[in-house]
Amino acid sequence: MTDRARVLAYRVAAHQFDRGTADPAALRVFDLGVQDSERSAVPALAARLPEVPDLSAFTLTWSVRGAPHWHRPKSLPALAAALWPLSDADALARMNRPKVDAPLDVFRAVVEALKSVVDGPMTKGEASTRLTPLVPPEVTGWCRGCRATHVHDPIFRVAVLPAGLRFDPDAKTVTFVPIKGRRIPQRTRGFDGLVHDYLALHGPAGPSEVAAYFGAPVKDVKAVWPDDLVEVSRGKFLPADRVEAFENPPSPDVARLLPPLDPYLSARDRDLLVPDKAHQKEVWRILGRPGAIMMDGEILGIWRAKVSGKRLDVTLSPFAPLDVERFEEEAQRVARARGLESARIK
Q1: How many domains are contained in the chain?
Q2: Residue 25: DSSP 8-state
Q3: DSSP assignment of 267-315, as one string?
Q4: What is the pLDDT of residues 95-150, one digit of tens each?
Q5: Which pTM value belongs to this model?
Q6: Minimal CA–CA distance to 96: which of 163, 41, 151?
Q7: Full domain range(s) for residue 277
C-alpha cells in the first residue's frame, strides 16, 4: 500500500463510511461539528449511517470559521473556550479585519455586547440592530444590501458561540436562542483537543493544515502544538491512540455521493485528496458547489442534482470511466436524506 493509499484508507475508516454505527452521536465527525451551510449535514451523515438521521438531539450554531455546524449540545461550552482566539493576530484573522487596535479586547467587547442584548429568542436582524451601537465603530460598516450600518458579518458570526447562542432550527429566518448556563470564556482553553480531533479525522497532517481549517495563523498554531503527538512522516502527525489504526487500515470498499461541504472534503491537504489541479477546481468551486463522487477514498468526479416532483435527478460527471451501478443505491439514499421518494441517475 502506497503512502497516499494508506492515508486515504485511514481516513475512510476514521470517517466511519462503513455504516458500522446507527447512533449519530457516536460519529467522529461530531468531534469537530458537521457543517450545514447548504443543507449538507443530513446527506453527509446519511453517507455514514444506515438510516437518515434525526438531528433533534443536536445543536446548530455558528462555530468553526463562523460557519453553521451541528454539535453535540454538551460540547458547546468547551468548544467556545477552545475556539477563543489564541492571540491578537488570531483575533484579527477570525474577525477577517485588516487592522483593529487591541483585537482581542475588541473581540471580547463584541461577544459581551452580543450576550447582553440577546436575552431571549431573537432574530439576527433584531440582534444586529441592538448590537451595533454598543461595539467599537471599527467593527461596523455600511451594508448596501441592508441599507444600514451594522457589525461586519464575519465578526458577528465568530462572536455567536462564545456569547452562548444557538439557532432555532425551526425558525424561517436566522433566530438566536440563549444556551442555558452560558458563560463567556476568559481565555483560550482546550485548543490542543481540537488539534487532536482534526488529526484523528483528517490526519496525518501538520500545523499548516490545522491552522487553515480553523482560520488561525500558522504561527499561533505552532506555538500551542501539542507535544504528545506522533510524527508518522516528515511534518505529519497523529494522536498516539490513532497510530495503530493508521499503520493497519482496512482496505476501503465504499462508494458514496458526498454532498458539498462533506467533512471528508474539509481536510486542508487538497493536493493529497485530489492531485489533479483542474479536478480540484471542479470539486471545490466557490460558487455552485457540486457534490463529490467518492469510491474507496478516491474522489472520482462530481455530481449535481435537480428536484423533479418527488424525485431527485442526479447527474454524474466522472473524471474517468465509472461503474455507475455502484452509486444507484447511494442516489436513493441522497434522495431520502432530502425528503424525496426516489432518485434517478442521468
Answers
A1: 2
A2: G
A3: -S-HHHH---HHHHHHHT-SSSPPEEEEETTEEEEEEEEEEETTEEEEE
A4: 987 788 899 999 999 999 999 999 999 999 999 999 999 999 888 887 777 777 88
A5: 0.95
A6: 151
A7: 255-345
